[in-house]
Amino acid sequence: xxxxxxxxxxxxxxxxxxxxxxxxxxxxxxxxxxxxxxxxxxxxxxxxxxxxxxxxxxxxxxxxxxxxxxxxxxxxxxxxxxxxxxxxxxxxxxxxxxxxxxxxxxxxxxxxxxxxxxxxxxxxxxxxxxxxxxxxxxxxxxxxxxxxxxxxxxxx
Length: 156
Prior knowledge:
7 helices; HTH_CenpB_DNA-bd_dom; nucleus; mainly alpha
């Protein structure tokens, strides 16, 4: 993952235009030479180049990211399945009925690091879970204390 940003590129390109060699600028700002060379000669970022292949438009994705951030600010962070469901609803509203890819949510969160999600939880909270049936030995106090019976405890 690159450690440079668009602001770095604007600084580096300004330095190159001021007379710094491309190789020296590449080493100084720790940007791969080929990346710097391509950007200097007019290529776009991968994100912009691949935007046309994304299912949601940039504006739709921004609205979805804003919704995720707003939910988290309200104290109700959303889960990844909720994000996926909301995106599918947006697509259906636009007439697209194809399902989203298996890695869509992860890639969406990679593209939008400001979005945070809560981890998934079990459908049944721990305090309401029913323990598995167990065998107990229970004293039977009818005739003698020495008689014991096995009783299976069944939870309904």
